[in-house]
Amino acid sequence: MQLLDGKKVSEDIKNEIAAEVQRMKDNGEKVPHLAAIIVGNDGASLTYVGSKVKACERVGFESTLIKMPSTTSETELLKKIKELNTNDDIDGFIVQLPLPEQIDTQEVLMAICPSKDVDGFHPENFGKMALDMSTFIPATPFGILELLERYNVDTAGKHTVVIGRSHIVGRPMSILMGRKGFPGNSTVTLTHSHTKNITQITSQADIIITALGVPNYLKAEMVKDDVVVIDVGITRLADETNPKGYVITGDVDFENVSKKASFITPVPGGVGPMTIAMLLKNTLLARENRMC
Ligand code: GUN
């Protein structure tokens, strides 16, 4: 079994980006600037956004964090987005999800200028991705592709089973794994809450990508020998013995599934750090595209 070490690979990517930023600085060019909007006080979301801002500092990007109260109206948020769309200093920005229930997420994502949509969630960018056109690929799926590529995991002709059809991970992942090229050329099954006999499907899979958010969902009895397992789940489970008061748990029963797997991502230290690295990569692309 080989660990797909997202912590290490994401460090490699951040070093590559930092070197490019240094080159920009040496040439007197403006460095990329990422902005992030967070609405409300959800602890996990605040942690994720904080990590994104910290990663910007690490590679030499400029960053702006905009915190809005949980009572923010959709109109107020749309106004803020318009400001960022027209602010020439900002190369790309994200709106951290989920949003409070008074706000229509789709309306918000559609208001982001596609050329600054470094999350790749705007329908125009999502459509371009599905049509194999050059665009921003959502950071988590992009990170999974990068991990598969850097570990040279063979995906062509393999049966990839994606568990979960979220717009952020499962749906784009199912499209990307079926695209032409590497990593891709897979035969993809997208499973979800209405799927029947899931074990019958997962036990035939060469590659399993779980993005459910159900701790220890995928058990050893559900997979075949030499399976490749990508665990996107990050659930906080209360744990009083831990100084933070919680532990991060994936969708996979790692202890037992790893005994059968050929490649597997740990949680934490697998897909999570890759997501942040690829957001930086998209922001760098946004900056470079503006200079054309
Ligand atoms: N919430 C969970 N994952 C993501 C992500 O990749 N981007 C944003 N904006 N919100 C998220």
UniProtKB/TrEMBL annotation:
<feature type="domain" description="Tetrahydrofolate dehydrogenase/cyclohydrolase NAD(P)-binding">
    <location>
        <begin position="138"/>
        <end position="289"/>
    </location>
</feature>
<keyword id="KW-0560">Oxidoreductase</keyword>
<dbReference type="InterPro" id="IPR020631">
    <property type="entry name" value="THF_DH/CycHdrlase_NAD-bd_dom"/>
</dbReference>
<dbReference type="InterPro" id="IPR020630">
    <property type="entry name" value="THF_DH/CycHdrlase_cat_dom"/>
</dbReference>
<keyword id="KW-0511">Multifunctional enzyme</keyword>
<dbReference type="Pfam" id="PF00763">
    <property type="entry name" value="THF_DHG_CYH"/>
</dbReference>
<dbReference type="GO" id="GO:0004488">
    <property type="term" value="F:methylenetetrahydrofolate dehydrogenase (NADP+) activity"/>
</dbReference>
<dbReference type="InterPro" id="IPR046346">
    <property type="entry name" value="Aminoacid_DH-like_N_sf"/>
</dbReference>
<dbReference type="InterPro" id="IPR036291">
    <property type="entry name" value="NAD(P)-bd_dom_sf"/>
</dbReference>
<keyword id="KW-0368">Histidine biosynthesis</keyword>
<comment type="pathway">
    <text>One-carbon metabolism; tetrahydrofolate interconversion.</text>
</comment>
<dbReference type="InterPro" id="IPR020867">
    <property type="entry name" value="THF_DH/CycHdrlase_CS"/>
</dbReference>
<feature type="binding site">
    <location>
        <position position="234"/>
    </location>
    <ligand>
        <name>NADP(+)</name>
    </ligand>
</feature>
<keyword id="KW-0554">One-carbon metabolism</keyword>
<dbReference type="InterPro" id="IPR000672">
    <property type="entry name" value="THF_DH/CycHdrlase"/>
</dbReference>
<dbReference type="Pfam" id="PF02882">
    <property type="entry name" value="THF_DHG_CYH_C"/>
</dbReference>
<keyword id="KW-0521">NADP</keyword>
<keyword id="KW-0378">Hydrolase</keyword>
<keyword id="KW-0486">Methionine biosynthesis</keyword>
<keyword id="KW-0028">Amino-acid biosynthesis</keyword>
<feature type="binding site">
    <location>
        <begin position="164"/>
        <end position="166"/>
    </location>
    <ligand>
        <name>NADP(+)</name>
    </ligand>
</feature>
<feature type="domain" description="Tetrahydrofolate dehydrogenase/cyclohydrolase catalytic">
    <location>
        <begin position="4"/>
        <end position="119"/>
    </location>
</feature>
<comment type="function">
    <text>Catalyzes the oxidation of 5,10-methylenetetrahydrofolate to 5,10-methenyltetrahydrofolate and then the hydrolysis of 5,10-methenyltetrahydrofolate to 10-formyltetrahydrofolate.</text>
</comment>
<comment type="subunit">
    <text>Homodimer.</text>
</comment>
<protein>
    <recommendedName>
        <fullName>Bifunctional protein FolD</fullName>
        <ecNumber>1.5.1.5</ecNumber>
        <ecNumber>3.5.4.9</ecNumber>
    </recommendedName>
</protein>
<keyword id="KW-0658">Purine biosynthesis</keyword>
<comment type="similarity">
    <text>Belongs to the tetrahydrofolate dehydrogenase/cyclohydrolase family.</text>
</comment>
